[in-house]
Specification:
Number of strands: 8
Largest sheet: 6 strands, parallel
CATH topology: Undecaprenyl pyrophosphate synthetase
Shape: globular
Strand order of the largest sheet: 4-5-3-2-6-7
Number of helices: 7
Structural class: alpha/beta
Radius of gyration: 18 Å
Distance between the termini: 4 Å
CATH architecture: 3-Layer(aba) Sandwich
CATH class: Alpha Beta
Length: 230
């Protein structure tokens, strides 16, 4: 079956290139992460509702990122904490609901608390849902879902029941995945939800990504013919 794309319901972003952006400018990696959050992510998120997106997911920290130095990982924790705390009012004003998926229990209690408070504060918003994928890995999510279903009989495990066992069963399938930095791979990002997602690979490093770049990706999505195997 083939259909002309309209507006995507769920757009997912792979935020790649913070460290390379910093290296090209002779800056420490931390500067790349700072610019990636404050100059790219928050502006994109706050403008996304104007593009008629109902769900926006950003892969901000992967399971592999735990292998980085303690100094860099701890800096990212503080950056997430401050960023969420400083932007929750703006997100709330924009009627955006904050969500999170991944191994959230692996993070320090302070970060989990800030995230929990932001989610509770915006829970009543009925606009765009902004999901942070934190300590997220596609294989880890599939394994976690399988573990939840381990006690069921084979005939009870269906695509529908498996989807209900994912980190967030209310998260719709991804229509469009955008990855920055020129890398043309998904690195295990949302293998279940993104099965039929359209893919766009931007050559820009993530800190240089702006709301107009998202608008450009959406314009490309709308002219594509989506095929679902029929």
């Amino acid at each position: 079956m083939s259909t002309r794309s309209t507006d995507p319901q769920h757009v997912a972003l792979i935020l790649d290139g913070n460290r390379r952006w910093a290296k090209l400018r002779g800056l420490p990696a931390m500067k790349g992460h700072w610019h990636g959050l404050y100059k790219a992510l928050w502006p994109v998120v706050l403008e996304a509702p104007e593009q008629d997106i109902s769900h926006l997911t950003a892969w901000a920290f992967s399971t592999e990122n735990w292998n980085r130095s303690d100094k860099e990982v701890e800096y990212l924790f503080r950056l997430f904490e401050r960023g969420i705390r400083n932007r929750v009012n703006e997100l709330n004003h924009k009627n955006i609901r904050i969500n999170a998926v991944g191994q959230i229990d692996r993070f320090p209690e302070k970060l989990r608390s800030v995230l929990r408070e932001a989610m509770e504060r915006t829970a009543g918003n009925d606009g765009m849902v902004f999901t942070l994928a934190l300590s997220y890995g596609g294989r880890a999510e599939l394994v976690a879902a399988a573990q939840k279903l381990a006690g069921k009989k084979p005939h009870e495990i269906t695509e529908e029941s498996f989807a209900q066992a994912l980190y967030d069963p209310d998260l719709p399938d991804v229509d469009l995945i955008v990855r920055t930095s020129g890398e043309q791979r998904l690195s295990g990002f949302m293998p279940w939800q993104g099965t039929y997602a359209e893919l766009i690979f931007s050559k820009k490093q993530w800190p240089d990504f702006r709301p107009e770049d998202l608008a450009e990706a959406l314009a490309e999505f709308r002219v594509r013919q989506r095929r679902f195997g029929g």
